[in-house]
Specification:
Layout: E1 4-8, H1 15-25, E2 33-36, H2 42-45, E3 51-54, H3 71-74, E4 80-83, H4 86-91, H5 96-108, E5 112-117, H6 121-125, H7 129-141, E6 149-153, H8 167-181, E7 188-193, H9 201-205, E8 212-215, H10 222-235
The structure holds 1,3-dihydroxyacetonephosphate (13P).
Amino acid sequence: MEKIIVANLKMNLTFDEIKKYKNEIEKQEMRNFILAPSTLYLSYLKSDKYELCSQNGYYVDSGAFTGETSFKQLKDIVNYSLIGHSERRNNFNESYEIVSKKIDSCIENKIIPILCVGENEIEKKDNLQYDKVSKEIISALKNKKIDKIIIAYEPIWAMGTGNIPKYEDIENMCNYIKNIVKKYTKNYKIIYGGSVNSKNIIDICKVNGIDGVLIGGASNDPKNIIDMYNTVKKYVK
Ligand code: 13P
């Protein structure tokens, strides 16, 4: 099965840089490539060469919520949305309850959620990674009719550090996630995020059960992301 590559540009790139980015990635067909830029650039980046993902969204459809963009507004532009990214949970106090409401709104608006889960450094030290991940998934999905979902396992301690878990630990977590998520839907994928780069992307994509990757920092340069994309297409079947 072909791997999925999601590029989370976070709060990076100016409009000039985005224009160059679009120009580069539109030079080839980017099947199963999902781009998550700042909300500001989503309309501009609409393309038939790749798919779009929002980095966030608000769960109320419309109203007096200055500064927010609802999933209802996003649905004509994106197919996916990141939900519960650790940067939102930690920097913007996104609670389990808010994450759950966002999943509801995605379902309602037919946006495929990319639910981000993963343990921090302390939880890892205390061997609580499985408890954390199950809590994050169950609280987000319980009592819901999920059509399709992507779970992104992103250990917080690995993000932006250059460190990644042992491949067997990724595989074990992947199996663990699979056993939880399959109770909610048969239509799921599991991807890995956290310091994915051109050196480790192949090995990560070859881990049993991993359907793709979520890339942060290494996706900011369009040439780099195209290289990683082409390498995966070539070496991982
Ligand atoms: P890095 O790839 O920069 O570690 O970021 C991972 C991430 O947060 C993707 O959502």
